[in-house]
Amino acid sequence: MFGGRYESIAAISAGALMLLCGNLMAQDTQEVKVEATRIVSKESPIRKPYSFPMNDLSLTYGVSLAGVNLATSSGATEAERRVREAAKAACEAIGQRYPNATPSDKECAKAATDEGMTKVHQLIAAAEKATSK
Q1: Per-residue pLDDT reduced to its tens digit, 80-129
Q2: Per-domain boundaries in the chain
Q3: Cα separation of 120 and 103, whole Å?
Q4: Longest CA span, the chain
Q5: Per-residue model confidence as pLDDT tens digits over 7-58
Q6: Which secondary-structure segment (H or E) carries 116?
Q7: What is the C-alpha separation between 116 and 112, in angstroms, rounded?
Q8: Can you name the residues that pair with 62 across neighbouring β-strands?
Q9: 93 near 59, Cβ under 8 Å?
C-alpha cells in the first residue's frame, strides 16, 4: 500500500545508522573510566515519603588518552598522571559535598587510581606490543 516510499526511508535510515556506528567503532578513542566511591550517611534530597538513605556514592570521570602515545615512556607517564589527577578530583568532589564521607579523600583517590591504572597498564601493554611488531 505505501510502497517504496516508506521502504526507501527505512533503508536510508538503516544505512545512516550503520555508517554512524561504523565510524564510531572505527575511531581509536582511548578513554579510561576512573570511579571514586565513598560511603556517605545522608538522607536523599527528595521529599518524604520518597526519600531514602544513601550509603555509597560513586562519581565516574572519563579520562581521555587521545593524543597520548602509550608506547613511549613519556606517554605512559602522562596517562598515569591523568588517571591520578582524575581520581583525586573525583574523590575531592564527593568530599566537598559530603565532608563526613569515608574513606578519606586520600584513601579514596588511591583506590580509584589503582582501579584506573589496571586499564591504563592494559592499554600501555597493547600499545607496546603493537609497536614491537
Answers
A1: 999 999 999 999 999 999 898 999 999 999 999 999 999 999 999 999 99
A2: 29-132
A3: 24
A4: 67
A5: 444 444 444 444 444 333 333 458 999 999 998 875 555 555 666 666 888 9
A6: helix 105-132
A7: 6
A8: 33
A9: yes
The Cα–Cα gap between 36 and 42 comes to 18
Which of 133, 131, 96, 118 has its CA nearest to residue 33? 118
Grid cell of 12 as nine digits: 536510508
- Where b means 16+ CB within 10 Å and e means fewer, 34-50 reads bebbbebeeeeeeeeee
Distance CA 120, CA 126 (A): 10
Local structure of residue 70 (DSSP, 8 states): T
Indicate if the alpha-carbon torsion angle 96, 100, 106, 109 is positive or negative: negative
